[in-house]
Amino acid sequence: MVISSTSGDRADHFLDCTFASRYVRNPVPKFMMPETSQPKEAAYQIISDELMLDGAPRLNLASFVTTWMEPECDKLMMASMNKNYVDMDEYPVTTELQNRCVNMIANLFNAPIGAAETAVGVGTVGSSEAIMLAGLAFKRKWQHRRKLEGKPYDKPNIVTGANVQVCWEKFARYFEVELKEVKLSEGYYVMDPVKAVEMVDENTICVAAILGSTLTGEFEDVKLLNDLLTKKNKETGWETPIHVDAASGGFIAPFLYPELEWDFRLPLVKSINVSGHKYGLVYAGVGWVVWRSKEDLPDELVFHINYLGSDQPTFTLNFSKGSSQIIAQYYQFIRLGFEGYKHVMENCMDNTRALKEGLEKTGRFEILSKDIGVPLVAFRLKDSSKHTVFEIADSLRKFGWIVPAYTMPANAEHIAVLRVVVREDFSRSLAERLLSDIDKVLNEIDTLPTRVSMKAAHVTATVDEVVNASEGMVKPGKKSVEEIQREVATYWRNLVERKRTGVC
Which of 131, 149, 121, 156 shows the shortest CA–CA distance to 297? Predict the structure, then answer.
């Protein structure tokens, strides 16, 4: 029970619980700041009560973002909540910890730097900011080269797969770069390197490869892309580089697939981003971008400020931000080391395989995700004629699980899937519980009327209704089965758009 001290018309003070106070019967402020103050206990209780209606983060299987850290790291983060990261002169140790993280990540990604050489990179608030910074560097380098050649530099483009995260679309729109997408196809849900290279022209600032597709977790073939692009560059005289978006897979591949060539071992890979708040095992709010060398980051993009006491080079899209996530990232690096990260990722993959096997045993699902990639399971119903993955996602909410259902991008949009992301804190017991609840959901929806047929019947009935038109009473003919099916598919796609569960 929350206790607060209050005083009324009487001179004496008495103790009263928050739930017996006037604060819980007043409407919650939503548009205007309240005129008067209230006890801290009451404010805490009101907000805490509303937050109970949020989903449980550890049961949010839609997100790649870390939802658990050790108590010791929590303490470090709380102790540094009041440190502004950009005050480098005032907090030099925090700045040093960031530089150490950049060096460790660059070496993990096989950057061509010496043992004691400082790497080129920066901490960001996530991979979205990291991608913006990398994209700006590519655009500026391309513009310089075009100017020296006396050629137009006003129509830059970037080549990606249609499976890229929305931050790439943001970069293209915000910084006026054409986004050329390689379309997907059924059974192939990542960028085809051959098609990508075919789309490259003299205005291409870079080709973006994804190490860990958001849709299926699959790694794109960066090695093949590098080889094909090297050949094309040699034939054309262009210098088209590669950026690797390793937001999800950057902390997976080095530990589970060390022989896989996707990073700075490939000559055309000039920059890589990775999310510390995903499989870097830090709470939301930290990403990283590293460059192959300082020549790949134009000096003019780096600002130097000195009003806080000393010269501070900065290359970010924002300025003030907290220090907690940077400190937490360094904690994880020295706490776990290579060995610890390897064990964590192996556990994630083992639980992913157990979940995959359990789903296959039901006989109801087709697995779309690959064995090599990010630890997740993407799957669809073998038979969607009676019920859909959207119904399953809705029904799982009753058990507390947040499992996203979504359709694939263009050229494969008729494929609807469920996706479960396996994070560090998703144990074998939770995997078994999820499988049990999925089985309950399947048994339950089998007893219900099919929503697809209900929707089709509704569509047919609507078409057959007599419409009171201005010219008089009109009765259109019935739609074909194919037209009805298209109506049903459109209905579910629109439903998904209204009920986004964070495919990220």
Answer: 121
In tens digits, the chain (504 residues) has pLDDT values of 444 444 444 433 444 677 777 777 888 899 999 999 999 999 999 999 999 999 999 999 999 999 999 999 999 999 999 999 888 888 989 999 999 999 999 999 999 998 788 899 999 999 999 999 999 999 999 999 999 999 999 999 999 999 999 999 999 999 999 999 999 999 999 999 999 999 999 999 999 999 999 999 999 999 999 999 999 999 999 999 999 999 999 999 999 999 999 999 999 999 999 999 999 999 999 999 999 999 999 999 988 877 555 666 788 888 889 999 999 999 999 999 999 999 999 999 999 999 999 999 999 999 999 999 999 999 999 999 999 999 999 999 999 999 999 999 988 889 999 999 999 999 999 999 999 999 999 999 999 887 655 555 444 444 444 344 444 444 445 555 555 555 655 665 665 555 444 444
At 123, is the secondary structure helix, strand, or coil? strand
Query: How distant, in Å, are the alpha carbons of 169, 189, 268, 382 from that of 165?
Result: 8, 13, 22, 27
Q: Which amino acid is at 3?
A: I
Work out the end-to-end distance of the chain between its first and last CA atoms, rounded to an integer number of angstroms.
38
Alpha carbon 81 to its chain centroid, in Å, reads 24
The three-state secondary structure class of 158 is strand
Beta strands in 231-345 (DSSP E): 242-245, 269-275, 287-291, 303-305, 312-314
- Whole-angstrom Cα distance, residue 255 to residue 257? 6
One DSSP character per residue, 368-421 reads: -S-SSBSSEEEEEES--SS--HHHHHHHHGGGT-B--EEE-STTSTT-EEEEEE
pTM of the model: 0.87
Concatenated DSSP letters of 430-457: HHHHHHHHHHHHHHHHHTSPPHHHHHHH
Q: Is residue 94 within 8 Å of residue 80, measured between CB atoms?
A: yes
Quote the DSSP letter at residue 181.
Answer: E
Cα–Cα distance list, 290 to 263, 308, 313 (Å) = 11, 26, 16
Contact 327, 77 (CB under 8 A): yes
Q: Which residue has the tokens 């924002």?
A: 318
Task: Tell me how far the alpha carbon of residue 63 is from its chain's centroid.
Answer: 7
